[in-house]
Amino acid sequence: MTEKVLMKGNEAIAEAAILAGCRHYFGYPITPQTEVAAYMAKKMPKIGGTFLQAESEIAAINMVYGVASTGKPAMTSSSSPGISLKCEGISYLAGADLPALIVNVQRGGPGLGGIQPSQSDYFLATRGPGHGDFHVLVFAPASVQEMADLTGKALHLAWKYRMPAMLLADGTMGQMMEPVALPEPHEAFGTDNPWATTGTLMAREHNIVNSLELAPEVLEQKNLARFERYAQAEAEECLWEEYLMDDAEICIVSYGITARISRNAIVQARKEGIRVGMIRPITLWPFPNEPLKAAADKVDSFLVVELNMGQMKEDVELAIRCRKPVDFCGRVGGMIPTPDEVLDHIHALAEGRR
Amino acid sequence: MIVFEKPHALTDVPFHYCPGCTHGIVHRLVAETIDELGIEGKTIGIAPVGCSVMAYNYFNCDMIEASHGRAPAVATGVKRAMPDNVVFTYQGDGDLASIGLCETVSTACRGENITIIFINNAIYGMTGGQMAPTSLIGQVTQTSPYGRDPNLGQGYPIQICELLATLEAPYYLERVTVNNVKNVRNAKRAIKKAFQNQVDGKGFSLVEVLSSCPTNWGMTPDKALKWIDEAMIPQYPLGVYRDKDKEAE
After folding, report:
1. Looking at the structure, do residues A193 and A303 belong to the same domain, yes or no?
2. In this structure, what DSSP letter does residue A330 have?
3. Is residue A209 part of a domain?
4. DSSP notation for A150-174
5. Which residues of B touch A92 (CB under 8 A)?
């Protein structure tokens, strides 16, 4: 590992993407992720890469689609309202089985919402952001270090499974500065793609990158084949972290910035003798169903902490088949709970008040 | 002696276009150009959404199907990733002049070194004949059943070559048609120039082709070709709207 440097989360994403081999970035200014674009604008021209400020979020995702069609790594970044605009393009990427990285540094919504941190795009990200049956890989970093590490991982897994990947961060993660050990530079990848449209060189049949299929029986088969790939990703790529779960009676489930806050609350609760631990999903799709199911055999209750109205709570209840009570602690609109607010919920659960 | 054959750049897949539609002629002109310039192996085409949505089946070069209106953005991505390849889009008027107008103008404004073949038939064909931004004043369509009327808030025909000619970057803009032999030959010259410009690294080139839609205009193919002369050309004058080669002379 190289020595640590102090970086903003958004800058760590940009540098990590370059180190991971991405040379094509397309974006549109939107708070609180614009530092990604600014970093790319400085860096890409000096390393022979592409930075292009697109005319719109829609154009940016379609430029990514164009690069991805040639088999080369490409990315875009935005924040919640911009991601809504990109959803059409993400659906086409999924339908054409193209890999790409989409960064979403979430802010409060709906509509124009605010510019303070949020996790309210959980449903949008995990249910397939766009029309049709599909998934994207979803990564939820909880530190600037993870912003860097998961950016590279998301890029490579997107190519492995030929599907879009989304780095689902929040405004806090994007704006905060922390020491980060940047990953080693990765060799260029995406060079051997027999499906890519790079010119036939008159040496093969023409390739077609396409999501249109008018024969329903064929389109059904394409969907089924895609979901076989998804099943493999679910089996092999799920990431999560467990914290003090060995003897836990209460299990907090939280990701991103709220996992950091929850950790502080857990430390305090443990001092008070309350046996509480945490399962922190690092991938939100695939979702860590198995560790949660296993935890449901041991703990008395769950507490979901997130910056929305309880979107992941539904997935936790599904994962544990509602066998244990699931409490919820959330703030919205850009508000962030304090460790004490989380601790109040822990107290209530420990005392059987909830 | 072979005096006439199918261009190599066209596949053997039969066109799905209606009888009398001029898409087939323009496809052939693009394919002849690709053959004559010897660029099939390095050409990447981008199909639109509309009647020519399945153009990806007809050209022998690598092809990409874009979402509605976004072909110029997709082409921008492809060209940035593969600057030595030849990249073209083939788009209709609903795709290029309505839902994709922002991408059209912005791509032209950047002067992307790509080629756009723009088919203007003044109507949405694929969906059964609705008003397009290019529909003529008084033109009856499914969604302008009383004739396009600016006084009813339906606006005026949008003139793409004239619009793009207000920008600094475009290298070459020309409007042609294919309603008789002379015009077909002229259209071929323009299309070939638009591809040659890209090969020479000159920049953004767009050829607008006034085309017929007998099915949705409710005309015989012959009458439709005449209607281009009588109704379309007065609204959309043929000619060169930008040619930086000429300006340099």
Report:
1. no
2. E
3. no
4. HHHHHHHHHHHHTSEEEEEEEHHHH
5. 66-67
* A182 in the same domain as A112: yes
Residue A213 lies in a domain: no
Q: What's the pLDDT tens digit per position in B137-149?
A: 999 999 999 999 9
* CATH class in words for B23-248: alpha beta
**Structural domain boundaries in chain B:** 23-248
How far is A64 from chain B, CA to nearest CA, in Å? 6
What is the gyration radius of the CA atoms in chain B, in angstroms?
17
Average pLDDT of chain A, as a whole number:
96
Output the pLDDT for position A79: 97
CATH number assigned to the domain comprising residue A296: 3.40.50.920
| Confidence category of residue A186, pLDDT binned at 50, 70, 90 | confident
What is the span of the domain harbouring residue A253?
A: 241-350
Q: Is the pLDDT of residue A239 over 70?
A: yes
CB spacing of A69 vs B77 below 8 angstroms: yes
- Name the residue among B54, B80, B85 with its Cβ closest to that of A67: B80
Q: What six digits make up the tokens of A243? A: 């914290």
On whether residue A218 sits in a domain, the answer given is no
Q: How far is A255 from chain B (nearest CA, A)?
A: 34
Beta-strand ranges (E) seen in B60-171 are 62-65, 86-92, 115-120
Q: Higher-confidence residue: A192 or B188? A: B188
Residue A191 has pLDDT above 90, yes or no: no
CA distances from B159 to A278, B110, B234 (A): 62, 20, 12
- pLDDT attached to residue A190: 67
Asked whether residue A121 is assigned to any structural domain, the reply reads yes
Predicted complex ipTM = 0.96
A275 and A232 in one domain?
Answer: no
What residues in chain B have per-residue pLDDT under 70? none
- What dihedral do alpha carbons A190, A195, A197, A199 form, nearest 10°? 100
